[in-house]
Write a structure and sequence with these properties.
The complex is a heterodimer of chains A (478) and B (959).
Chain A lengths: L2 H17 L1 H5 L6 E2 L1 H4 L3 H15 L8 H8 L4 E3 L23 H21 L15 H23 L29 H15 L14 H14 L3 H13 L11 H4 L9 E5 L24 E4 H5 L12 E2 L18 E4 L9 E5 L1 H14 L1 H15 L11 H16 L5 H7 L4 E2 L6 E2 L4 H4 L5 H6 L14
Antiparallel strand pairs in A: 2-4, 3-7, 4-6, 5-6, 8-9
Helix pairs in contact in A: 4-6, 4-7, 6-7, 7-8, 7-9, 8-9, 9-10, 9-13, 10-13, 13-14, 13-15, 14-15
Chain B lengths: L1 H22 L14 E3 L5 E3 L7 E3 L2 H5 L17 E5 L8 E5 L12 E4 L2 E2 L23 E7 L2 H5 L9 E6 L5 E16 L9 H18 L10 H11 L10 H5 L5 E12 L3 E13 L6 E14 L4 E15 L10 H7 L26 H7 L1 E20 L2 E20 L17 E24 L2 E24 L15 E25 L3 E12 L6 E12 L4 H4 L2 E15 L10 E4 L9 E5 L10 E14 L5 E13 L2 E5 L8 E5 L2 E18 L2 E18 L9 E3 L3 E3 L7 E4 L2 E4 L6 E4 L7 E2 L8 E6 L4 E11 L2 E11 L2 E4 L2 H4 L12 H5 L30 E3 L2 E14 H4 L6 E15 L18 H4 L2 E2 L6 E11 L1
Parallel strand pairs in B: 6-9, 40-44
Antiparallel strand pairs in B: 1-2, 3-8, 4-5, 6-7, 8-9, 10-11, 10-45, 11-12, 12-13, 13-14, 14-15, 15-16, 16-17, 17-18, 18-19, 19-20, 20-21, 21-22, 22-25, 23-24, 25-26, 26-29, 27-28, 29-30, 30-38, 31-32, 33-37, 34-35, 35-36, 38-39, 39-42, 40-41, 42-43, 43-45
Helix pairs in contact in B: 4-5
The chains are: A alpha+beta (478), B mainly beta (959).
Chain lengths: 478, 959
């Protein structure tokens, strides 16, 4: 080879790398796109909305753990001594579960703020995307759904991580983050501010929502039902009653009747009772949801309702041995094999990892109304409660406690008999200052205890945000 | 900047000092023989011994010929100062953690760059769905001629962009001119667990333990007093709980683990060469069983290397390495499918098989169906990886002093991983799954790298002055293509790991990651009279992952060969003082991290979904992480033959503008953002000393030892975060001023002798204790996972036909954490699972108040098993890494035609292990593979497969 040729080839290769070096170095990912690519039209907006529902599916919050923790942290459910380790801290005495470094608090907080981030990213495009006649739905409907889901996430946050509305420490709500900013280190907003934002979002969403379409999308009635929940928590009983009544009056939905109870959780996923639920399917399963730890079909059958809970069901109650089983439905694993037998009751609401997670159903309106009326007109509350149980669940039901705290307790007990594992019990007791005493585990939580005031912020959050305050009483690391 | 000034003035000092001394020297250059051995290094750069500046370590031939592990990085253990290598797990083929001069990066890679025959190869763990696959396990150590480890700024600066964590340069074997030489090596061996002091309860003890849990809880908590103080009632309850027949005492470990995993290795090589051509070819096979019955590793390798002096100016060299590894890797970590974990944890009261010989699937355990023996038998975790590594390089002497080098290489690693869960027992049994029982997942991965460099090397001597200069360009492209599918719904009772049997395909995906790197290199070196050498190099690199792609790196170094001075020469054969300073980069980040992106695949209701899934680099973008390295040292050899030799180096490396995953408030929707932020400094001392004690015809004895001290400290972290503490996985946290591998957890304060309750210190000051873990703060423990001291002693003795080689390693000043203890070493929590003996015999009772374990209570004693320093142990150990005794018969003794020599040997690895902490039950060389970053994995024992000790018998025949 001639010297000349060598130099030519060397300089040729040098040239190659210099002339096209930026093309050589510029690489684009194969499975992700930019903001401009996504939010260029209505189709992209719909894709982003699906992304928000996708984070809602996570079992870390509304896809399972909110429901599970609301039972296990209260009085009528427990983790059996024979367990796989999930949720085992809920058995610890002295509020041992309520530590800032418990993963469940991290996951709950993290997932709810991920929902909020996804909603904020959609809402940042409000008013900028034209309606395309060829695409089903409208951009304004998408934005309304995003607002409603953001409000649902904030409501879940504030009811768990802050004290009840109007009580105790009102400074420590949760940070209101309404737009994405990776550098933000937000302080907590007040409880009042958080509720105001929730109501603002829900009211803004209402006009653009409808009841048409699938029950796997948040809709107008779900928002009305959520408003009745929010006003109940806000102690605005008139409005709680008003929105509950709206839901009850809506003929698109019907209260779950006695003869529908049996199929309701096993096959009737399009029941008129169901208002809004999170969809799962065989390609998109909820494998870490309730079926991981609850019930006869679970992989780790370890979470149970108590016998005391079960014993509240009358003999003719249609839910008995349908939703709740005191005798095992699995011949291989006898409930009597468990140490805590005969205290264990299987909950059979969720049977498959593709069952939708039910977040809103019509019967909740009955209970929201009854609880609101308890404050406004106790005798009417008693009457409505008795009437509902008799009509819809147990014909032999007789309400004995007609007033006072006994009535309140009965309202909430009846609510839990209906809504066990649907995400209410811990919040219901907290809102109403009722102590929780678990007869199986011995764990007790007084209404004045820290664990009933607020969940601890995840230690991670305290570590990474100088402006956020841990709820007083929780040990923060250093 | 201070560092830079310091190093430059140190360099100046050396030069000044040397100049003064040199002026006094009488011996003149003219009388000296000028010829020096010229070494061809990376990029075709030629250097004579004294021209080599900077700090590097050559790995001994013995380490390569008598391998103590299957992968190249396993062999780096104890091989030289400044190299810390610690096995990940005992799974053959598992990734090792290899650190050159300590920790450089907090949240990104710390692995050195590996270059084989000029090609930067894939390293680290390249498995995706199976437990671990060390990319370097695909290289047969037997095919390696030479390994050089470059450590300091000037030695690594040639590699610029990727030199931050050190560089390991591997050259494969070439043929030598002359008649054909054939070598045949056969090794067979057996193994055992190297170190395991765990002792677990037997069936009766476990029942007793459980009875105590019931009994104590009844006394303490239960007002109804179920047992009325009668322990036998509690015992009966425990017997009933386990449905124990009073006889069964299953040794699950014996059933799940191999007592003596087998090993074999066969290697055949032929090498030789004619006038212009040399050839080396080899075939190798290695098989190593792991400790669990379902762990094994097999490797097939082939190598071919040829050189051809095509003309007096042109030399070509071609190498090809082909290999395949087939590995079965049971689940690791604290999963119910990890046989190491479950075989300890399942109660010995339970039977493996039913009376009719079928698997027992009604076990009193975390899950009645989870029979670990059946899981081992019926499930599969199998990885097959193929590697093609090939390079062609050409050297053309344009002029006697000017050479052009070009080299093109490819490294292709393709993986085919299979995870199969049978439909009936274990993870695959999913009664709530809409897709049916059983699951199969296949993952295909292709790591393809090509690399091309072109260099002009100038080397000329002008009287006493030698000058060498280099300019070049290097380009690298790597693409990683992945494709996966999953299927579920396998028919019960049929155990075939193929998706065709499955009713429901459940997932399919594919994607690609790709990056490019381009570097422009210049280097110059000047040597005066073999006395003074100055080297400078500079490199400009562009990498896809950075916002502006490019960064500039450089290194300067100088050394003085003081033996050129008569006064010195009388004592030292060689005495080289050296100083260097260099700035390297660290790629340390994926190609797309800088971009703010919306990931697709966040689907809902069977339609497309997208979500903001990657923050991208905030406003300021991402740039190169810079590692500033300062080194001062000396190399010496004493005596006429240099029979005593050693090195001493002091270094300080500061990695600033690190590619750091800064923790951000979760309210952003993310947990971290990647920025150029933190800064870490590693300082240390390295020394080695060796001696050829005897050097006679039939008696040679070499001994050498090395020692390294390393101290790493975090200099800065993000400025505005809350507590200044960044908690990371692996029970550790970062804080300015601390070692980055310091453990962070609640501080255990023992057992309250009065109540039997666990105690924790309320905070790091250790002034108050509490029995309520809510009131105990997470605190820094003062203990860290990264060893401060590493030492090794190597011995090689040849007497007549006998040969004795051994290597002893020491690592000290570090701690290890037992992550699985929260299940198997507790006071009643998870009593369904078996426990260590101490939990029964040294737990608190009213009569035994001075106990190491709290009182046993059903469901645990105040959360005694929460993560705390209770489960932290000192890791310091001394280990007889290898010992080989051999007997060589040479041609005369054999008197067999064609057979040149026979070498018979026995080799042991990890034969003896001494640990300093008497409570340490598991192998101190334990590093998890569960986390993405090195520091998290360090020192975390999560029921890993244990390291093995091996006894190997070998024969090596030379024809």
């Amino acid at each position: 080879m001639k010297l000349k040729h060598i130099f030519i080839s060397l300089s040729a290769s040098a040239l190659f790398f210099t002339s096209c070096r930026n093309e050589f170095l510029d690489e684009k990912p194969s499975d992700a796109i930019t903001k401009e690519e996504l939010f260029s039209n209505e189709q992209g907006l719909n894709i982003a909305l699906n992304g928000l529902y996708n984070s809602l599916q996570s079992s870390n919050a509304l896809g399972g753990n909110v429901q599970t923790l609301n039972e296990l942290l209260a009085d009528q459910a427990f983790v059996a001594l024979e367990n796989s380790g999930y949720f085992i801290g809920t058995r610890e005495p002295d509020q041992g579960f309520f530590k800032a470094d418990i993963i469940y608090f991290y996951n709950l907080w993290d997932n709810l703020y991920k929902n909020i981030k996804n909603a904020n990213e959609i809402l940042a495009n409000e008013g900028q995307i034209a309606d395309n006649a060829g695409v089903e739905g409208t951009p304004s409907n998408v934005f309304a759904q995003a607002k409603a889901l953001r409000a649902l996430s904030y409501f879940t946050l504030v009811t768990h991580f802050s004290e009840n509305y109007g009580e105790g420490n009102q400074e420590l709500g949760v940070p209101l983050v309404l737009s994405y900013d990776i550098s933000a280190k937000p302080a907590r907003n007040t409880v009042e501010e958080v509720y105001a934002q929730i109501i603002k979002d829900l009211e803004a969403a209402l006009p653009d929502l409808s009841d048409q379409g699938s029950n796997t999308r948040i809709n107008k009635t779900a928002v009305e039902l959520l408003l009745s929940r929010v006003y109940l928590a806000k102690k605005d009983y008139n409005k709680a009653n008003e929105y509950a009544q709206k839901v009850l009056d809506n003929s698109n939905y019907t209260l779950l009747a006695k003869n529908q109870v049996k199929e309701f959780f096993s096959s009737d996923f399009n029941s008129k009772e169901r208002i809004f639920q999170i969809d799962y399917n065989s390609k998109d399963t909820n494998s870490s949801g309730p079926t991981q730890t609850w019930g006869v079909f679970s992989i780790y059958r370890q979470n149970f309702a108590t016998k005391a809970f079960y014993d509240q069901l009358g003999d003719k109650d249609v839910r008995k041995e349908v939703w709740y089983h005191a005798t095992s439905q699995n011949p291989n694993v006898n409930l009597n094999d468990y140490t805590e037998a005969p205290n264990l009751v299987d909950v059979s609401k969720y049977r498959s990892n593709v069952d939708p997670m039910l977040l809103f159903r019509k019967t909740e309106a009955v209970f929201n109304q009854v609880e609101a009326l308890y404050h406004l007109n106790p005798s009417l509350a008693a009457e409505k409660l008795e009437q509902w149980v008799k009509t819809y669940r147990d014909e032999d039901y007789v309400l004995t406690a007609k007033s006072g705290q006994a009535l309140l307790k009965e309202i909430l007990n009846q609510k839990n008999l209906e809504f066990f594992l649907e995400g209410f019990r811990y919040q219901d007791l907290k809102r109403n200052h009722l102590d929780s005493k678990n007869l199986v585990t011995g764990v007790s939580l007084k209404s004045t205890d820290l664990g009933f005031k607020a969940f601890p912020l995840p230690q991670y959050e305290v570590n990474s945000n100088p402006n956020i305050k841990q709820f007083p009483g929780y040990t923060s690391a250093k | 900047m201070k560092k830079q000034v310091f190093s430059l003035s140190a360099l100046g000092l050396f030069l000044g000092l040397g100049g003064l001394l040199y002026a006094q020297k009488t011996d003149s250059l003219k009388t000296k023989e000028l010829e020096a051995v010229v070494i061809k290094g990376v990029y075709g750069i030629k250097q004579s011994a004294e021209q080599v500046s900077g700090s590097s370590t050559k790995i001994s031939k013995t380490a390569l010929e008598s391998p103590t592990g299957v992968s190249v990085d396993n062999l780096l253990q104890g091989s030289g100062p400044g190299i810390m290598s610690s096995a990940g797990s005992g799974q053959p083929g598992a990734k090792a953690i290899t650190l050159i001069r300590g920790i450089s990066s907090l949240t990104s890679g710390n692995s050195p760059l590996y270059i084989i025959d000029g090609v930067p190869v894939a390293s680290g763990d390249i498995s995706r769905s199976t437990a671990t696959q060390n990319a370097l396990s695909l290289i047969n150590p037997n095919d390696i001629e030479d390994i050089q480890v470059y450590k300091d700024g000037v030695a690594t600066s040639l590699f610029g962009s990727r030199g931050a964590n050190g560089v390991v340069v591997i050259t494969t074997k070439s043929g030598k001119k002359g008649t054909a030489r054939i070598n045949l090596t056969t090794e067979i061996g057996t193994s055992a667990v190297a170190y395991d002091k765990f002792e677990y309860l037997n069936a009766e003890e476990h029942v007793k333990y459980t009875a105590l849990a019931y009994f104590n809880s009844d006394n303490l908590r239960n007002a109804s007093k179920e047992f009325n103080g009668d322990f036998s009632k509690a015992y009966t309850k425990a017997v009933n709980f386990f449905r124990w027949d009073g006889k069964t005492n299953t040794d699950w470990q014996r059933a799940a683990l191999r007592e003596n995993p087998a090993y074999s290795r066969y290697n055949v090589s032929i090498s030789g060469g004619a006038k212009d051509v040399t050839l080396y070819a080899s075939l190798g096979y290695l098989s190593q069983e792991g400790v669990p019955r379902n762990a094994d590793f097999q490797r097939y390798t082939g190598a071919l290397k040829g050189t051809w002096q095509a003309s007096d100016k042109l030399k070509a060299s071609f190498s090809l390495n082909l290999s395949r590894s087939v590995q079965n890797t049971p689940s690791t970590d604290l999963t119910f499918a990890n046989p190491m974990f479950m075989a300890r944890a399942i109660s010995p009261t339970q039977r493996i098989y039913n009376a009719d010989g079928t698997y027992n699937t009604n076990i009193v355990s975390v899950n009645p169906n989870f029979n670990i023996i059946a899981v081992q038998d019926l499930n599969l975790n199998k990885a097959v990886f193929d590697k093609v590594l090939s390079s062609l390089s050409l050297d053309y002497d344009i002029l006697p002093y000017l050479t052009f080098n070009t080299s093109f290489g490819i490294d292709n690693n393709s993986g085919d991983e299979l995870v199969y869960w049978n439909p009936d027992i274990g993870d695959g049994y999913k009664p709530s799954s809409a897709n049916g029982n059983g699951a199969l997942s296949k993952s295909f991965t292709k790591h393809f790298t090509w690399n091309w460099y072109n260099f002009l090397n100038f080397n000329k001597r002008f009287g006493a002055h030698s000058v060498s200069a280099t300019v070049g360009i290097e380009a690298t492209k790597r693409t990683i293509d992945i494709a996966d599918f999953e299927a579920s719904g396998f028919p019960s009772g049929i155990y075939k790991p193929y998706a065709s049997l499955a009713a429901n395909p459940t997932a399919a995906s594919s994607n690609r990651i790709s990056w490019g790197l381009v570097g422009y290199i210049a280097r110059a070196s000047y040597t005066y009279d073999k006395f003074l050498t100055l080297t400078a190099s500079a490199r400009r690199d562009g990498y896809s992952g950075f916002s502006d792609y490019y960064g500039n790196f450089y290194g300067v170094g100088g050394n003085l060969e003081l033996s050129r001075i008569d006064a010195v020469k009388n004592v030292f054969k060689s005495l080289k003082l050296k100083a260097s300073y260099g700035e390297n980069g660290n790629m340390a980040v994926g190609p797309y991290t800088k971009l703010k992106l919306y990931g697709l695949g966040f689907n809902y209701d069977s339609s497309n979904g997208a979500a903001l899934s990657q923050t991208g680099a905030p406003d300021e973008g991402l740039k190169w992480e810079v590692s500033k390295k300062t080194n001062i040292g000396l190399d010496f050899s004493l005596g006429r033959r240099g029979s005593v030799y050693g090195t001493l180096d002091f270094y300080s490396n500061t990695n600033s503008d690190q590619i750091f995953d800064e923790q951000v408030p979760l309210t952003t929707g993310f947990s971290s953002v990647t920025r150029n932020l933190a800064s870490v400094r590693s300082r240390g001392v390295e020394a080695s000393l060796g001696a050829n004690l005897v050097k006679q015809k039939d008696f040679q004895w070499n001994v050498n030892a090395n020692y390294s001290y390393n101290d790493s400290e975090i200099l800065s972290l993000s400025s505005d975060n809350g507590t200044g503490i960044s908690q990371i996985d692996g029970r550790k946290a970062f804080e300015v001023g601390r070692n980055p591998s310091e453990f962070y957890m609640r501080l255990w304060a023992g057992v309250d002798p009065n109540t039997g309750q666990p105690l924790w210190y309320t905070d790091g000051t250790k002034t108050a204790v509490t029995s309520n873990s809510n009131l105990a703060q997470l605190s820094f423990t003062g203990k860290k996972a990264l060893p401060t001291h590493i030492a090794a002693l190597n011995n090689e003795l040849v007497y007549k036909n006998f040969r004795l080689v051994f290597n002893i390693n020491y690592q000290g000043g570090f701690s290890v954490y037992d992550a699985g203890s929260f299940v198997t070493d507790t006071s009643g929590q998870h009593f369904i699972m078996n426990k260590v003996k101490e939990d029964l015999y040294d737990s608190w009772t009213p009569k035994h108040t001075n106990a190491s374990r709290p009182e046993i209570l059903a469901n645990g004693n105040n959360g005694d098993n929460g993560a705390s320093s209770r489960y932290l142990y000192d890791g310091d150990f001394i280990r007889l890494r290898s010992l080989e005794l051999g007997y060589r018969l040479n041609q005369e003794q054999l008197n067999l035609k064609g057979l040149k020599s026979v070498y018979l040997y026995v080799r042991g690895t990890n034969l003896l292990t001494y640990v300093f902490d008497k409570d340490l039950k598991f192998d101190p060389e334990s590093n998890s593979n569960s986390y993405s970053n090195t520091i998290s994995n360090l020192g975390i024992y999560n029921s890993l497969q244990p390291q093995m000790k091996q006894f190997i018998f070998g024969v090596s025949l030379d024809f």
